Amino acid sequence: MLLLPFSSPVDFEHCVTCEAPEEGREAGHWFVFRGDQLLVEMGPLERPSDDLRVRARPAWARLPLQKNHNWLGRAAVRTLYLGRLRGIDCWMAELTAEAEAPGGLSWQSLRALFSVLEDAHFALAGRALQLLDWDRNHQFCGRCGTPTQAKREERVRVCPACKLSAYPRVAPAVMALIRREKQILLARSPHFPPGMFSALAGFVEPGESLEQCLAREVAEEVGVQISNTRYFASQPWPFPHSLMIAFVCDWKSGDIKPQAGEIEAANWFEVLQLPKLPSKISIARRLIDAVVEEVKSGTDV
Ligand SMILES: [Zn+2]
């Protein structure tokens, strides 16, 4: 099974509650956020190559390990229990937007910590970011406005007046990489970094199967028809709560017609002449790399 960045670590035990911290308790990992920035202890900055255009990044980063459950004091807006990683308790907390980092620690954007923070910690940081966001957004009932209450044994906030339950939301989105003989179709949306192209993607609409969503998204965004859809892999994507489900498919018919406003450019690319691609943090890049290998080696994904 392909475990992509942000996928749950195999040695993580999902739990909702933890008994009140006792004396002599082992220190726990703390996932502390301010917006989408994570609180970490950072190693010295390093430049991964001699190229001055490549930004320096920390050699390593570590999560704070804390025994004292109240170490954040009044700065914590919310604190939730996440579960246990290799037997160590994991806590998550949100601080106010202007909160200063405690001594020796600093705020780093979660994306920038990919491959700098240990993989399991990076994945759980993504989970924590989504859960903090969910908790913040469901303090009041969406139907009647009454303050909601957390349930002890389950990750859900319930309205005491009308009983409406708010579970953490996951929004499925499909991704399609279309192959036509030795070429692949890549496109760019206006918000991509300059020069970057990627596979097509879009959110699933209510009442749609994944296959129907794929066919619709591809037809809308680039005007072509597809066939022979094959599942590739999926990836949790915590910005803010997506599940990316990636497929490879074959071109069936139609010329590329980029959708106005959504797709700035779309082209067939030879696998040996690819444009700038997304980072390896994303399933998009893994999908493109796999299909490029498939084309080069003459096999199928
Ligand atoms: Zn209600």
Could you explain how this protein is built, in words?
Strand 14 and strand 15 form a beta hairpin. With 301 residues, the chain is an alpha+beta fold. The radius of gyration is 22 Å and the shape is globular. The chain is 16% helix and 34% strand. The mean pLDDT is 93. The structure holds zinc ion. Zinc ion binds next to loops.
Ligand catalogue: zinc ion
Radius of gyration: 22 Å
Beta fraction: 25-35%
- β-strand number: 19
Mean pLDDT: 93
Number of helices: 3
Low-pLDDT stretches: none
User: Shape from CA axes?
Assistant: globular
Helical amount: 10-25%
Look at the helices and sheets and give the structural class: alpha+beta
* Oligomer kind: single chain
Largest sheet: 8 strands, mixed
**SSE string, helix = H, strand = E?**
EEEEEEEEEEHEEEEEEHEEEH
Please give the alpha-carbon distance between the first and last residues: 14 Å
